[in-house]
């Protein structure tokens, strides 16, 4: 059996992309890379994401939004 490469994703949820949270994640990421992991940093504030508002419009039967998000 061959060795598998570990993949790690580091998620920065801080709006300040290069401050304390980033520095801690960067340090952990560097350690993981030194151990042979394949790493990626994701900044949540770079992502334009709008989650479910729990309006249940997608659940209305016999409507245009049945099964589809109303956004």
List keywords for this structure.
alpha+beta; 2 strands
Write the layout of secondary structure elements.
Layout: E1 7-12, H1 20-34, E2 38-43
Provide an overview of this structure:
The longest helix has 15 residues, at 20-34. The chain has 71 residues and is an alpha+beta fold. It has one helix spanning 20-34, and strands spanning 7-12, 38-43.
Low-pLDDT sequence parts: none
Strand order of the largest sheet: 1-2
Instruction: Determine the N-to-C terminus distance.
Output: 48 Å
Helical percent range? 10-25%
Number of DSSP helical runs = 1
The geometry reads as elongated
A few lines on this structure:
This protein is an alpha+beta fold and 71 residues long. It has one helix spanning 20-34, and strands at 7-12, 38-43. The chain is elongated, with a radius of gyration of 19 Å.
């Amino acid at each position: 059996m061959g060795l598998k490469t570990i993949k790690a994703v580091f998620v920065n949820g801080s709006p300040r992309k290069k401050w304390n949270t980033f520095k801690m994640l960067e340090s952990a990421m560097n350690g993981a890379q030194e151990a042979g992991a394949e790493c990626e940093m994701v900044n949540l504030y770079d992502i334009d994401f709008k989650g479910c508002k729990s309006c249940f419009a997608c659940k209305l039967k016999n409507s245009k939004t049945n099964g589809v998000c109303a956004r």
